[in-house]
Write a structure and sequence with these properties.
8 helices, three-stranded antiparallel β-sheet, seven-stranded mixed β-sheet
Length: 348
Amino acid sequence: MTFKATLEAYDLLDDARVDGERVRKALLAAGLEQVKVTRVDGPQGFTDFVQVVIPGTQGRQAGGPSPTLGVVGRLGGIGARPERIGLVSDGDGAVAALALALKLARMQQKGDVLPGDVMISTHICPHAPTQPHEPVPFMGSPVDMAAMNRYEVTPEMEAVLSIDTTKGNRIINQRGFAITPTVKEGYILRVSEDLLDIMQMVSGRLPAVLAITTQDITPYGNGVFHLNSLVQPATATAAPVVGVAITAQVAVPGCGTGASHVVDIEETVRFALEAAKAFGAGKCRFYDEGEYQRLLDLYGSLAHLQTLGRHGGASVRHESPNNADRERGQAADCQSHRQPPRGAAGTA
């Protein structure tokens, strides 16, 4: 059960004074050894990126054959102080990511070590900026999407689960969590059957799939509407990416407080844990390699969809983070959890 870890992660982040260093100390106290915190400043404040590595028995760090799973806790900020007091709905992705790290640490202490390495990343910002808006203020982040991808998505990740609150829309209308089709280098591929199996086993319900569009898998800043940032990691890696959306039956603003359902977050954490077990053991495929190659042979590469396009130019894929970077802040729509780019349609 991951309920205790989820409650502890929630309590840790529901604090106006929490920062990356406090999170690092909590993870070290839980028995984890590889915890890195990087503070990145923007014109509207700063955020602390946290990256945790949990080595496996046969993982890449040990020179073994088991693949590495990346788990990204996506969000704009965990708090919108002083406009809103307390942990906001948008922070559920960070809660889930840290809860998974705590659970894996305790499993290792009890002798249950996964075969593959697991890399977990998120960021901590209890004072994310907002913009005036009715009926609720916009939710924002001190840094832009390029910075998030730069510090949260690494070349070592051979597949990525991206967890994000996805409640400000009418596309998915049920509480709990849903997964997206696999996204890889511009292609929206079929939904992973292995992940569907894990999802229904964990939830005890029929699996739920969130519909995504071509717009959603292109980088922010290109002037088109995005449902939210759930699958934005796919713009920064060649690895397959699956979004794990924490959902609601009605539209809930990302800057809303008292809107996080711990039961739903915990269920999401269990899903990520079981996926990590299976992926490291070679029993969970995110996509069919043969079918993907067939698509490439027939239609060619769609990797240009990972770029800002003809007018934007370069790819948004990146190398190692540069700590000297000063990242531009980007406002985010509280309803859709990120502000649609200029000229985009209204919130989902």
